[in-house]
Each structure stands twice: as C-alpha cells, then as structure tokens.
Amino acid sequence: MQERKHLTAEQKAQLLRELLDNQESMSVLSEKYHVHPNDIYRWKKQLFEGAASILVNKKTLKKPSIVEREKIQKLEEKLRYKDQIITELVEDNISLKKSINGED
C-alpha cells in the first residue's frame, strides 16, 4: 500500500498553475505529483471559492451606515461613562484604604 503524499501549499499552487495555465491533464498531474485526482479537484474548488475574498476591492467595502455610526457613538459614550465610574470607584477605594491605615 502506498503512503499518502503530503504537499505544501506552494506545491499545491504549482500543481494548480500547471493545470490551469499549462493545460496539463488531470491524470498527468496526478501521476507526476503522486496524488489522487479527487484531491486536485478539491484544491481547484477551494482555490475558486477563496478567490473572491482575495480579489475584493478595498475601496468598495461597505462603509458604516448612519445607524451603525450612531450605534458606535452610543457604545463609545457608554464606555467612557463606565471608565469614569471605574476611576471614581478606584479613587474612593484608595482613599478608604488610606483612612483605615491612618495615612491621611
């Protein structure tokens, strides 16, 4: 029984390049790289499924809507308020510790 062949991502890309650019047949590549044709089909499918995310134009990405911006602003205000409360509690805690230890 033949051991499984583990190809690196670079090797898989090279194999797929030969398949797509050089029009090599699936059987020739399968024999050349010692992999099952089903593996090649799967890699090809993964390549095309992931291609859309690679080819996304960064400028056309959706900008936050007015509602989303308002929500972000409200959440930021809420965080500032919580930070302010935490600061006050820490200051109170420190002053109480000092008064208990007689460090006024």
Task: Supply database-style keywords.
104 residues, 2 domains, elongated
Helix-strand layout with pairing:
Layout: H1 9-20, H2 26-33, H3 37-54, H4 66-100
Structure characterization notes:
This protein starts with 8 loop residues before the first helix and ends with a helix. The protein is elongated, with a radius of gyration of 30 Å. The protein contains four helices and no strands. It has two domains: 9-58; 62-100. By secondary structure, the chain is mostly helical. The longest helix has 35 residues, at 66-100. Helix content is 70%, strand content 0%.
List segments where confidence is low: pLDDT < 50 over at least 5 consecutive residues: none
The global form is elongated
Which structural category fits the helices and strands?
mainly alpha
Strand proportion: under 5%
The span between the termini is 83 Å
Main β-sheet: number of strands, strand sense, barrel status? none
Percent range of helical residues:
over 70%
Helix count, per DSSP?
A: 4
Q: Order of SSEs, N→C?
A: HHHH
Number of strands: 0
The domain count comes to: 2
| Rounded radius of gyration (Å) | 30 Å
Mean pLDDT metric: 87
